[in-house]
Structure formats: C-alpha cells, structure tokens
Amino acid sequence: YRSNLGMGATKFDVVSICLLTNDANSFTGTGFRIYNEDKANEILQYAKNIIDAFLIDNSATKIVINLPPLIANTKNTGGISYEAIKYNLFKLSELFLVNFDDGFYNPNVTMGIAGLSIDRYYGYAKTSTQIADRIAINEDWHINSFHPKNDGYKQMADGMFPQLLNLLG
Q1: Partners of 77 in the beta sheet?
Q2: Which of 62, 35, 66 lies closest to 51 in space, CA to CA?
Q3: Backbone phi, then psi, for 119, in 5-degree steps?
Q4: pLDDT, tens digit, 9 for 90 and up, residues 128-156
Q5: How large is the angle between the packed helices 82-100 and 37-57, nearest 10 degrees?
Q6: DSSP string, 73-129
Q7: Other CB atoms within 10 A of residue 152 CB
Q8: CB-CB neighbours of 70 under 10 Å
Q9: How far apart are the first and last CA of the chain?
Q10: What contacts 135, CB < 8 A, 6 or more positions away?
Q11: What is the predicted pLDDT for the residue at 31?
C-alpha cells in the first residue's frame, strides 16, 4: 500500500494512528457486543504490523497511537448498548496503553490523547427532536454518537498538534 502510493523509505518523520470507536465496536458477541480478548489482541497485532512496517522503512520514524474518542452521549445509540461499547473502549485503550505507552514496544512509539480532546457535546452531530409523541418539547439529541462531525475531527487535530510538534522539534 505504502509503496503503491510512493510512500516508504525515509518519507515519514512522524506517523499518527487513531484508535476509533469502530475498533471497540468490532468485537463480536451474542446480542450486545461484548469485550472479546481474542478480537482485541487481533486489533493490537494489526497495530503492531502497521508500526513495524513504518519502522522498517525508517527506524527513526516517531509513531503516536491516539486513544479513541468517548461516545457522544450516555443514551443507547444505534441499537447498541452504550455501556458495552464504553467498556470495550476502556479495555481496548488499556490494552494499547500497556503495550505502547512510554516506548514499551519501541522507543519511537507512544500513546496520544487526540481522541480524548473531542468535546462530547459539540463535537458530534445533533438534531432537534420532540421528546415524546404527546409532549411538544424539543430537545437536541445526537444523531451519530460514534463518528465526530467536522468540528469534532478538528478538535482531534487540536489535541494531536502539540504532541506532533514536540516529536518534530
């Protein structure tokens, strides 16, 4: 992939990888999606493969793996148990912190906070919805609690920027 795009060799000083909610949402289970240690370790191995590929190209490349954003709200969303997804996010984050923070895997690899810099209220898309059929009061509800809107992605970039500057500087 990198070769086909003309990437590789010494082209990268810093690489930033973001864990996202979909990573924690990809665990399979019956009914609710529940934490699956084998699936989590598979995701961890994919991350190691990507990291190793960049480090083979250039052993001086600095790599930041960013923690995933929190889900926008505390209501069930998308038909999936919020608590199960939140638990999966915390467990996956813990697994990555144990394996990558403070250069544990490689001195050039560390964890970042970009996903945690998204404002849970303003970083996700909302719509005004009547709270009940017989109650004519509207309330703002998130329409996608997993994927930030453009402002949310900009907040992620703001959270990522200081760490990238530090690594480049």
Answers
A1: 80
A2: 62
A3: -70, 120
A4: 888 888 999 998 877 777 788 999 999 99
A5: 40
A6: -SS-BTTB-HHHHHHHHHHHHHHHHHHHGGGSS-TTEEEE-GGGGS-TTTSS-EEEE
A7: 22
A8: 19
A9: 28
A10: none
A11: 47
DSSP state of 2: T
pTM for this model (two decimals): 0.80
What SS3 state is found at 39?
Answer: helix
93-106: pLDDT as tens digits = 999 999 999 889 99
Q: Which of 65, 110, 70, 60 is nearest to 90 (CA)?
A: 70
**Exposed / middle / buried, residue 38 (Cβ in 10 Å: 0-12, 13-18, 19+):** exposed
What one-letter code names the amino acid at 129?
T
Q: 23 in helix, strand or coil? A: helix
Mean pLDDT (10-residue bins), the chain, 169 residues: 66 84 61 72 92 89 89 57 76 92 93 88 85 89 81 92 87
CB 106 within 8 A of CB 154: no
